[in-house]
Design brief:
- By secondary structure, this protein is mainly alpha-helical.
- It has one domain.
- Helix content is 85%, strand content 0%.
- Helix 3 (46-78) runs antiparallel to helix 4 (84-100) and helix 5 packs antiparallel against helix 6.
- The protein is globular and about 65 Å long.
């Protein structure tokens, strides 16, 4: 139970850190400062911009891989003691990691986020399989395996892609917000409150 609680808290920290990571990378590399200098009318050399951009991507890639691994470990820890709250938390972490990959420019970052999401998704299917002998979990695993191929094969129109992107943004935001009540539930606070007032 303690490991599940640690995983719940770590998942929130990892997902929130992944959200602010691109801005932190821009600030740490000095690219934001160069942009401010250029906006005020000062001259900025291409070499300075190239160096800052390289530093941004290097730092962003390393930090993204570390935070993706942290979020994956958190999701797996949360599923050590499966409950309604920890399973829902792992589902939300899986979805948010997959959706958050859209915001990162390099293949390394995207692969790390999708990989972390896939590992937690496979563990979720394993938990489902352990607790019910239904074929549904296997069907879900096959669907999750075929979904990336479907995304590559289908090329929707531009307006459909824009709508899907907006829907993904909203879903990601709702997922991040939903993590906090799920962590509170993983700690058993809601049950204690019901016992207190019942």
């Amino acid at each position: 139970v303690e490991q599940a609680r640690v995983g719940a808290v770590l998942s929130v920290v990892s997902v929130v850190a992944l959200g602010v990571l691109p801005r932190l990378a821009l600030m740490a590399s000095g690219l934001s400062g160069l942009d401010d200098r250029r906006s005020s009318g000062a001259s900025v050399s291409r070499y300075q911009v190239s160096t800052a951009l390289t530093a941004t991507h290097r730092g962003l890639a390393l930090a993204t891989v570390i935070l993706a691994a942290s979020a994956m470990a958190a999701g797996l820890l949360a599923l050590r003691a499966p409950s309604t709250w920890t399973v829902l938390l792992a589902v939300v972490v899986t979805v948010v990691l997959a959706l958050r990959a859209r915001a990162f420019p390099l293949v390394t970052e995207v692969v790390a986020l999708f990989g972390a999401s896939a590992v937690v998704a496979v563990r979720l299917v394993g938990v489902w399989q352990e607790h019910s002998r239904a074929v549904g979990s296997l069907a879900l695993l096959v669907t999750l395996a075929v979904l990336p191929l479907l995304v590559l094969a289908v090329q929707p129109a531009e307006h459909v892609r824009i709508r899907l992107r907006r829907f993904g943004d909203v879903l990601e935001s709702v997922g991040v917000i939903a993590l906090l009540p799920l962590v509170i539930g993983a700690f058993g606070v809601y049950g204690r409150l019901l016992d207190t007032f019942a």
